[in-house]
Give the backbone structure.
Amino acid sequence: MAFNVTLIGEGFGDDWGDGEDEGVGHFKFEKSLNRPLHAIHRLISPPTGYTKSQAQRGVFITMASNLAITAAEFDQEVLNSDMPVLIDFWAEWCGPCKAIGPSIEQISAEYADRAKVYKVDVDSNGELAMKYSVMSIPALLVFKGGKEVDRMVGAAPKAQIAALLDRALR
């Protein structure tokens, strides 16, 4: 699975560990990386003025857009899916949503051959949040065979989130 990542900041040499010299100084670029998220997480060095944690969170937020799904796509991608689907109802302003973002991304990569993972921005897709009675976020819903089969509200460790999909895969 490749991820398009935009990093803005300073770099020195091979910032991405891909054998290419991205140069020295300020840059803005996108790269398509075919590596697991934990590898990307380790390779990011923070731009000047940012902590490593801030730089990594920024990259994960950018990558999360690859999982975005809209109301128009929901029926086809979720309800008509032949495999279980985990939906993360979230918002940009939600701290706990951002906290579980890296776990959602990792689960998406780890379960890619067995399940689908999507993110629904409740600010842009409020009708979906209302349809599924999402009153608090983050809200994690699992669908199987076109029906909701599990739900978790609030931030949780990665293992607990993955357990939602594991139950649906039995």
Summary: The first strand starts at residue 3 and ends at 11.
